[in-house]
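HOLO CASE FILE
Compound: adenosine-5'-diphosphate
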Amino acid sequence: MIENTFGINIVPENDKERLEVLKRYKITNTPSEDSFDGIARLATQIFNVPISLLSLVDAESVFFKANIGMGTAKEANRGKSLCALAILDHEVTVFEDALKEPCLMSNPNVMGDFGLRFYAGAPLITHDGFLIGTLCIIDKKAREFSPSDRKILEGLAATAMEQIELRRSSLDTIDELQKANLLLTNTELDLKAAIEELAAINEEMEATNEELHTANENVSKSYDLTVTLNKNLQTSELRLKSFISKAPIAFGILTGENLTIEVANDMILKVWGKDKTVLGKPIEEALPELKGQPYIPILQNVFKTGITYIGDTAHVKLDLEGDIKDSYFDFIYEPLKNDEGNTIAIIVIANEVTDRIIKKQELEILNRQMEIALHAGQLGSYNLNLSTGKINSSEQCKANYGLEHDSKFDFDDLMKIIVPEYRDALKEKINQSIENGTALHAEYLVKWPDESLHWINAAGLPNYDENGNATHIIGVTVDITKRKNYETQKDDFLSIASHELKTPITSLKASIQLLNRLKDKPTHEMIPKLIDQSAKSLDKLSTLVDELLNLNRLSGGNLELTKEVFTVSEMLNACCDDIRIAGKHRLVLKGDLEATIFADLQRIDQVVVNFVNNAVKYAPLSEEIHLIIEKMEDRVKVSVKDFGEGIDHNIQPFLFDRYFRANHNGKKYSGLGLGLYISSEIIKRHGGEIGVQSAVGEGSSFWFTIPLN
Ligand code: ADP
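Model generated. Tokens follow.
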């Protein structure tokens, strides 16, 4: 609350707005100005008063913009200044004698030392009706103030107000000018900067211009080059096109999601078995035979993922003029991408390898066949590296040397296995084969790790490198021990056979020579003996010839059986008449005399004769020879038992082998070692069995069985 000496309200209702309006004039607390001082002075002169003020009533104080006669005072308290009352009324406020005014009774200006007695103040009214201050005159003595005085003071106040308005508008103008100035300054700065920039740009432009000029020169130069390059490009494009179309590799481009055939060279058309009409068609439509095969899904996937697909010897079924053919390809599906990295096409490059695959398959079949053949023939295969001595050998090859499949088997191992006297011969044969480029054929004896001896036949062919140096020998080996043994046996047999044949022939020859000498003496006592001798020799010869013939028939597989049902005892009774007549041995028939068999009578008789003859030959002291017939459930067994020296059980397994003849403690027996072999063959052909039961010192019982059905 402001101080109030008047005892009445001095704050008008609109004081708040009034103060806002006052602020707008920017006049309070500003230095004195000549124009306002001039008006106040004019007022003192007109009204002949000592004091005149141009005051502005602020919220708490009254500011004196012009002060004539009041010393240096700049302001007064609103509650004490009479101007505070003057702005409450639009009319001029006049106190002709202050001492008579009740509201001024407490006013210090009236009641104090100053001694104010007269006051007249005309309000300063703004153009919009607010009372912001006063132009007042003051005197220290009471005076009269006429209506014309009022009018003059009002006029002066209005002039002052006009001045205030003018001042304000000039202030605004100055403000605007200042703003404009600032703007101008800024603009100037901007302009400067812009000018500087422009200058820089200009410089740049000049430089660019120069560059352009140079470039221009270059352009004209490079134009020629471009033309040349373009020509070259066209040529190489043409070349590329012709290369692609004639390339020996299948090439095609499939575009878009539906994989339309855009490019297809001659080769791809050939392998597809199609012509140029497939161009522009989706691959699915152009090659309907691909349906159900994995290739279209693979292509679609390459298009989708943009990842290259490489196919290795892929199997493709293609329709070649109505013929679905199995083809094989190595191929690449390469995605072609645009700048955004999206696949727009697929390049298909394929190399047909059908021939290679077919050859490979044929080779595999051949290899398999060879493996089977090698296995069947018990042939071992080997590959000897001539520089390292390493041998790459099959399981069978190692088995031929008595080695396990995982045993080490190189050239030095081979040399150790070969019996020493055959080593150099083999090396020599290998050298000759390499030197002459001829096949290697060698036979040598090897000693297996179990000490057994085996014959090996090795064959091979040397291989050479491009410089003509032998690198490998590749070939096969086979164990020929059995054959070798047969050969030895055959050689032995031939010498025995010729010896055996020679004996009766020599004897026959001698008998005939003697008979020849006695032909004039038909009654000579020697003649019957010589005839008997000759007959015996002839018998022997015919037996030998029979055996040889039988052997020949057996080895040729020509032993034919003529079967009939006969009683075994009858057959046994009828055989071996010569032995019965000779009387040295008694043939005792035993067992089931009723038993019958269905067999070749001649051949079975031959077997029994052989058994009996052997008993006579090898058990000469056995007086009895038993012929035993046993009828069993499903077969009939016939045994010929002697009571001779018996046979060592160690040699019993070999008695029925071809050419086998046992050693009888230095005693010599004629024979070919064929009788029991031929007998066993005859029995086997009847589906029966043959064997011997014997012990040294207890005689031997040779037996055979013939099945009943
Ligand atoms: P060979 O012509 O030598 O008699 P075989 O095949 O008939 O030929 O007989 C083979 C061998 O069996 C004879 O060499 C003989 O050593 C032996 N052998 C055969 N029968 C008897 C027997 N009853 N007692 C002893 N050894 C026999």
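CASE NOTES: The CA atoms of residues 511 and 530 lie 5 Å apart. Residues 147-246 form the longest helix (100 residues).
CLOSED: yes
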